[in-house]
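S1.2 Input.
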Amino acid sequence: MNIFVIILIPAALVLLGWSTLKSREKTKQSLKVAKGMFLNVGGEIFGLLLLVALFFTLVPQGAIESLLGGANIFLSSLYGAMIGTVLILPKFVALPLAADLIKQGAHIVVAAGFITTLTMVGFATFPIEIEHFGKKYTLVRNVFSFIFAILVALGMMVML
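S1.3 Output.
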């Protein structure tokens, strides 16, 4: 456990107690809503974590290390950025995935490119964006986002 967990759990319990003292009925209702929300997304979260575990089971460590941790950091960063471009993952799954990629031999610069493109570039959501914002805007936004994501990754390389 890290310091944030050690601080946040007692803080949440204290605030829950305070909320209960203030209004027992509202707290009970809020906990029911929170339970329902957790049960709705719990299956999806579990499924995503299973897919990540399956990925690391099926893909040999050498493949990750050679593709995302090779001597050519720029090329490896492009690979990581391209992977991040086509995936749709919630950040609470993507960040541990990036940490595991680093543990498996990927360079930290690659992880930075992966996370940045995952956040900024929406290849999978391209059709929806075109529908709402138009083709030209969507294309320009995604191209510039990809370029800036690569610049962020390269900036990480310079800083490290």
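S1.4 Remarks. The chain has two domains: 1-58, 60-160.
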